[in-house]
Design goal:
The structure is a single chain. The protein has two domains: 152 residues, VC0802-like; 166 residues, 3-Layer(aba) Sandwich (Rossmann fold), CATH 3.40.50.150. The strands form two sheets. The chain has a seven-stranded mixed β-sheet with strand order 2-3-1-4-7-6-5. Strands 10-9-8-11-12-14-13 form a seven-stranded mixed β-sheet. It is built from ten helices and 14 strands. The longest helix has 20 residues.
Length: 387
């Protein structure tokens, strides 16, 4: 099968984890870029990637890059694309646009100009135009305008890959599923050791850990847009069906216990609903416990991974109160003998207040917030930073 040039988008900072994952899934000519990873893959490899990737946000097929000054430049650039190779008159589509340092101030306007050019070209080719469907399109067109440079791509997966389908209840500042998975991958978590999140919130880290532990492919329950493309449909659907059967055959019982703890009843309620929606109700154990006082569970030590508050959600005490919180947390978790720790935090005071030296630091972004994943392991291990 012919390999196509593709681009998988990723949460900022997770590009190395995504590159490693893509390599394991059979991608070739992998090159990290800001905001994602460029690679080559054939249709069989693409199917494996969209089914199994835990870190990719989207997998895009680039159609072209153009200089597109002004509104007419947008239209002229978009009309150069041979849309007829990917859409038929019966294909529904939608255009999503993002902007960076652009002369245009509204992404909807950029999307509209691309849509107009696409429709006009297909009308000229076929005599009729395809229909727009913003809720469930057959083909999703992604436009990115940086200054006057326009990139146009097709989204192979359709709905973003971080939408696993289990987030039915949220708490304040929930963590993206793909960021949680990237954290766990960087921490070397395979599911063969015990896992605890002592401040689980809505349960994202524990759920992603549960999916890894049971070897459940993130895309096992979902459909993908490329199975509806006129160009790909006949070949892609049988491959997707085969990949889904293979992924189902890989599922196993969790070999070690997983715990999701929180002291807040509302958070535990949200976590319970999400864990149940993920099909992990019999695997992830939910416990009401205060991270500042609770000791480790009664099991062989494994990995503790968590995303504690950064300070914006604790109304009392300000930064001084946060330092006290971090210090108390460090004192408690420091007594978890034998456990590895992976803590993501966006408060610059965390590391000194936690009062333990990490083995290494990994710079990640939780939404717009620059964070550090602080990795604590056995004493005496050599430190290594990646910033």
């Amino acid at each position: 099968m012919e390999r196509l040039p593709l681009f998988a988008t990723a949460t900022r900072g997770t590009e190395p984890m995504l590159a490693t994952e893509l390599d394991a899934l059979g991608a070739k000519k992998i090159r990290q870029d800001r905001g994602g990873v460029r690679f080559m893959a054939n249709l069989h490899e693409i199917v494996r990637i969209v089914m199994h990737s835990r870190v990719a946000m989207r997998v895009l097929y680039p159609l072209g890059e153009f200089e597109a000054p002004g509104k007419d430049g947008l239209y002229d650039a978009a009309k150069q694309v041979p849309w007829e190779e990917w859409l038929s008159p019966n294909t529904t589509f939608a255009v999503e646009a993002t902007l960076k340092d652009s002369e245009h101030t509204h992404s909807g306007f950029v999307a509209l100009r691309v849509k107009d050019a696409l429709v006009d070209r297909l009308r000229e080719k076929h005599g009729v135009r395809p229909n727009v469907d913003t809720k469930d399109p057959d083909v999703s067109v992604v436009a990115h305008l940086a200054k006057q440079h326009l990139s146009l791509s097709l989204d192979l997966s359709g709905e973003p890959l971080f939408k696993r389908g289990y987030r039915v209840k949220t708490t304040a500042a929930p963590m993206k599923e793909t960021l949680a998975a990237a954290m766990l991958i960087d921490l070397g978590y395979t599911g063969d050791e015990a896992f605890v999140d002592p401040m689980c919130g809505s349960g994202t880290l524990a759920i992603e850990a549960g999916l890894i532990a049971t070897r459940r492919a993130p895309g096992l329950r979902r459909q993908f847009a490329m199975s509806r493309w006129p160009e790909f449909r006949a070949m892609a659907q049988p491959l997707l069906d085969e990949a889904r059967k293979e992924a189902q055959a890989m599922v196993r019982p969790a070999p070690a216990p997983l715990f999701a703890r929180d002291y807040d009843e509302e958070a535990l309620h949200a976590a319970k609903r999400n864990v149940t929606a993920a099909g992990l109700g019999a695997i992830v154990r939910l416990e009401e416990a205060d991270a500042l006082t609770a000791g480790p569970p009664d099991c062989t030590p494994g990995l503790l991974a968590t995303n504690p508050p950064y300070g914006d959600r604790l109304a009392e005490g300000g930064q001084k109160g946060m330092k006290s919180f971090f210090f108390a947390l460090g004192k408690t978790l420091g007594a978890w003998d034998g456990w590895r720790l992976g803590i993501l935090n966006g408060n610059t005071a965390f590391e000194s207040a936690f009062h333990q030296k990490p083995q290494r630091r990994v710079r990640l972004w939780n939404g717009p917030i620059e964070c550090r994943l602080l990795v604590y392991g056995p004493r005496g291990a050599r430190s290594a930073d990646r910033v």
